[in-house]
Amino acid sequence: MSRLKLLFSEAVQSTRASMSTTVAATLTVLAAMFVLGCALALGTLLRSYGDNVKKQLVVKVYFCGDVSLPDSRCVKRGPATAHEINVARAKLESNPKVKSVGFVSKSEALKRMKKERPDIVRNIVSNPLPASEDVTPIKGEFTSQIADWVNGAKFAGVDRASYGKETTKKILHYANVFNILFAIALVILVAASMLLVVNTIRLSPTRSPSSSMPCCCSASGC
Question: For the chain, which terminus, N or C, has the lower number of CB atoms within 10 Å?
Fold first, then answer.
């Protein structure tokens, strides 16, 4: 019975002695998990925003229309025929870097222009805008490659392809910066969390069973 009391007493003393360290270790782990969770949430949000911006990158493939610029490939010919439009569309859709292709008719192009730049088309008598295809790449990094491919292929009935070179460069640059910052922050926070936990464990007092138990002396000595 006395031995059970002794064991219970030692357990209570050990718990009291390590209570503050146990609480500190628990709070440290919780704080590290909270900071790491916030970093992951913020990083995921930034990457999601970057990916969403990349999805807005589109290559505009313009067909020959009724009006052509002096340096256009369509100066000595008329508007693109329905057959030429269908052939060009099929070639665009067969490109593995292309996600989707959307046809924009002359009337739809004029409607968009009236909404975006009404000052330009306010006094026009007829519709000078050509039909086009909105080509969405699988990845934003493929935007310039698709445009260069279309301009180099010189499909019949196609005037040119454009994609807003400077805007695309800025979008891809900032998206890559977000990814790099996320990776760096994640590594730093994981390392800091591990150091906090390890240091807390090292600082916690350890008591060996032999030091906590009283020496039982025999008749010949301890």
Answer: N
